[in-house]
């Protein structure tokens, strides 16, 4: 059974940093691209960052470019999101998910809440 377990969220002040982790299981982690998403209060889920299966290629949403860094450890089936210079508009529940064949119908994890206070 494919699962994603996110952790590392919390309450942080403006300009602070957090490192999120997502442990994946139930599939060959190293074969899949991994995405981080977030869902702000009352809004739709949005894509934040992408990393290729081997970790060599990354992409970021314009709103987080230069502040967030996505990475992965295929030996630990884990993808990370380092978030720096956090802003109140980064407040959201953050999720990870694999992208590829068979992943479309996989359920989302519980996410991890990030709250940035001003």
Distance between the termini: 40 Å
* Average predicted confidence as pLDDT: 97
Order of helices and strands: EEEEEEEEEE
Give the C-alpha Rg: 13 Å
Lateral arrangement of strands in the main beta sheet: 2-10-9-4-5-6
What level of helicity do the residues show? under 10%
Relative strand content: over 45%
Could you describe the largest sheet, including whether it forms a barrel?
6 strands, mixed
Write down the overall geometry: globular
**Can you count the helices?**
0
What low-confidence regions span 5 or more consecutive residues with pLDDT below 50?
none
Class from helix and strand fractions: mainly beta
Short description:
The chain has 118 residues and is mainly β.
Question: Can you lay out the helices and strands and say which pair or pack?
Answer:
Blueprint: E1 3-7, E2 10-13, E3 18-25, E4 33-39, E5 46-51, E6 58-60, E7 68-73, E8 78-83, E9 92-99, E10 112-117
Parallel strand pairs: 2-10
Antiparallel strand pairs: 1-3, 3-8, 4-5, 4-9, 5-6, 7-8, 9-10
Describe the model.
The chain is mostly beta strands and 118 residues long. Helices cover 0% and strands 50% of the residues. The chain has a six-stranded mixed β-sheet, with no helix packed on it. A four-stranded antiparallel β-sheet has the order 1-3-8-7, with no helix packed on it. Strand 4 and strand 5 form a beta hairpin.
């Amino acid at each position: 059974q494919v699962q994603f377990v996110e952790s590392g969220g919390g309450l942080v002040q403006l300009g602070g940093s957090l490192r999120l982790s997502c442990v994946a299981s139930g599939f060959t982690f190293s074969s899949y691209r991994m995405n981080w998403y977030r869902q702000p209060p009352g809004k739709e889920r949005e894509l934040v960052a992408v990393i290729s299966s081997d970790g060599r290629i990354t992409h970021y949403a314009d709103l987080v470019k230069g502040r967030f860094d996505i990475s992965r450890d295929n030996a630990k089936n884990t993808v990370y999101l380092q978030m720096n210079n956090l802003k109140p508009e980064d407040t959201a529940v953050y999720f990870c998910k694999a992208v590829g064949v068979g992943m479309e119908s996989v359920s989302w994890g519980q996410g991890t809440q990030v709250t940035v206070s001003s």
